[in-house]
Amino acid sequence: MENKFEPNSLPLLIGSIPLTDHQEATDLVFEYTPQIPLWVQLPYFSHEGMISQFLPGMPGYTIEDGQEYIQTANEEFHTDLVEFYEEYMAVTENNKDLNESKFALDNKRARGFFTLLEKLEERPEAINAVKGQITGPITFATGVKDQNKKAIFYEEQIRDAAVKHLGLIAAWQTEQLSKYNLPVIVFFDEPALAGFGSSEFISISKKEVMDCFSEVNEYVQQRGALTGIHVCANADWSIILDSETNILSFDAYSFFDKLLIFSDSLQNFLQKGGQIAWGIVPTQEKEDIDRENIDNLYSRFTEQLEQLAKDTNLSKQSILRQIYITPSCGTGSLDRERAEKVLSLTRGVSDKIRSELIL
Q: Over the chain, what is the mean pLDDT?
């Protein structure tokens, strides 16, 4: 898992921003995280929601009375399924151009992606890498329902199609972003992973989850990019740490102590070259955002760094080279003022760490 790109505690964002203009939101990204920009998702537009944005192209995809779901109970579904796998085979075995396939995002569903590409065409200075993101397979397949309101994760064939669908959209992003001769990072956003092991997902095995991750990771990594999995709550972190994922992205502000429970897996992950997106800037509670400042968060971070170095027997300098400084989650649910504060804190904490801690 040895990674060619070292983040060196640079600032990085998650994706969602509470604005209504993609250009304005992209400008904010370049203002606060110019070294590793990403494409923005604006929840103001319903079709940019975590599930909706990536549903088109799935076999059986249906919109009825404003509801999106997978219709499996008619003849058209079987035709859709055959056509889906034919397209998949054309891309993976017959070298069909991903950009000419159903796995390419369009300007309506992912305006932020194309706004980022337009900005990258200007060749802005100081870029070290570029980031894309997509909903992860567990969150997607447990969130998307069929006509009977049953999650498609529990239908093995439809789950398989969903994993391939997401993996190839992520691969398409990778190919588009790779044109700029920069390291590419793609995150799979997995809030549902927080529910793994609960009564809601009791029938989902760890192997099933890890098999999903293995497949989507491969589509991206074989194109030379790094993959990350982002969870903004507590989770069984071994699922990520023991996988081939390059980057673990977590809410360090609220759940750092929970991650340390997995210190052995964490040590192994970092020693193999794994990286951590350290979500030290709070986004979940407005009171936390209002209260915190750069110095407070820097102090909190240094305490956590000390503890992580002690528990993993790794040097602080090696850890600092292998981490990104991030918000704990996206800012799409916040008001603009607090969202900008989160972005500003992320940049400020990163700058302070890089100027005072990195040798």
A: 95
